[in-house]
Amino acid sequence: MSESGFSKEDYFYHSPIIFMGIFYLVLLVWTGICLLLMGSIEFSFGWPLARMIVIAFVMVYTWYFSLAISYKIGITEHGDIELTSFRRVVRVNAEVIGMVEGPKWAIIPYGFVRFRLEREKAYIFCCTTDADFEQYMQIMKAANPEMVLKGV
Predict the structure, then answer these.
(1) N or C: which end of the chain has fewer CB within 10 A?
(2) Residue of 57, 23, 47, 51 lying closest to 37 (CA atoms)
């Protein structure tokens, strides 16, 4: 550790691949069920069309949100944090993260961790009891002592 409180080298945490795979597999099954539901609705104007539009909207919105869930998070020697997802890469400084919230159920160590940034929220799927993740949180806390860790 350097005098500034965090490592002199870049550090990365990668979500457990098997659990990310299970998450997206469940999402694929859910999408298949939605498509079957949409296919079973007889196409006509009025209420059936409205139901198809609502189902399609929810399905697309869910995929849009799910593809933004980060699977890798890294911190550089300067305190810059990079959250990588399938849809985008969010780059911020550790000082702009106000709070890191763990999963709601403390008895289940796997879940989504929320990073509250200045204008948005970013999520990463992780195991909160993983030694690598705990080390990463210590490095982030050293980079930003004012950051609040809740349930992590």
Answers:
(1) N
(2) 51
